[in-house]
Model the fold of this input.
Amino acid sequence: MRILSVVGARPQFVKLAPIADAMMGRAEHLIVHTGQHYDELMSDVFFRDLGIPAPDVNLEVGSGSHGRQTGRMLEGLEREFERLSPDWVLVYGDTNSTLAAAIAAVKLHIPVAHLEAGLRSFNRRMPEEHNRVLTDHASDLLLAPTRVAMEHLENEGLAGRSRLVGDVMTDVLYQARDRALSDPPPIPLGLTAGGYYIATIHRPDNTDDPTRLRSIVEALEGLDQPVLLLAHPRLESFAARNNIPLSQGALRVHEPLGYSSLVAAVMGSAGVVTDSGGLQKEAFLLRVPATTIRPETEWVETLELGWNVLANDPEKIARTVMRSPAEPSDSRPYGDGHAAQAVVAALLDDTR
Ligand code: UD1
Done:
């Protein structure tokens, strides 16, 4: 069986790593990179660090408005799908690369499987929410990471196409954690274990309004320990354009980290402040307190267990970050680290 994975943005490379491993010897696995992310630190470092085979094709679409970026992907993917004629197209998460691949495949009557199906924020301002809803409804096989995701799919009439497989990011996280425990990489900027926070901000709702971005940055500047701010290119460019300095007070700006270094840095931190979907869950899995600068989250289990708290109002960030820690819990709502095997089994055993 020939399975073609389509990826394009940073979180998708992380999800691809355990899938590429699990495919070895079980299926012919091809990788198409749309080129949505193209910087060394946003793309190549993940392939190297996580031992992912080099993409078979790179469409090099680069950045652009949603329509232009998605349209360019759609055209390139259609051409590649016709040329490679896969048995399955596997799409990941909720980016513009996900949606473009799902549309290109379904139009050619190639079966599409959506990994990380059923997540919902119910926030229609988020481009990711449009991407995931449209992708789920276009796909033939919906691979859900959690019970809550399965419920969302059922509520939308998609239960018949859905399978609960667990969360593949948990697979890769546990592997990176074990590597970091046995051979810890240095903490950036000489920070001391337990004596710093990690922050990331990249969602358009937080970066693109200068007043809001300034308030978030000021809240981080005022925290009681140094803040390692891992700056996504979108944050860098909006901050520079609006003259918002990123290195005042507690802030220590740093370029994005590769996956293993990020996991080790989170393990050594006193807490994470983020608007990233992946990072809040990684913090939870490592039992590091997270503060999420969004009005809601798709990963509701992290809230219910108390390890993640929402602070969409910048005024609430400092108080939330400096809260007392949650009750210890050995709950594993995201599976046991073997989701990728379940994904490959679902693709090979598909009995639609
Ligand atoms: C995308 C995803 C988001 C995911 C995030 C992870 C969509 C709609 N959003 O958002 O869900 O959480 O990736 O990072 O697909 N840029 C560079 N170099 C790069 C990539 C981007 O400089 O390698 C800059 C460009 O100026 C670009 C901007 O960052 O315009 C935004 O990149 P884009 O891929 O459009 O969206 P992200 O914000 O990264």
Q: What stands out?
A: The two ends are 16 Å apart (CA to CA). The longest helix spans residues 66-84. The CA atoms of residues 2 and 144 lie 22 Å apart. The chain has a mean pLDDT of 97.
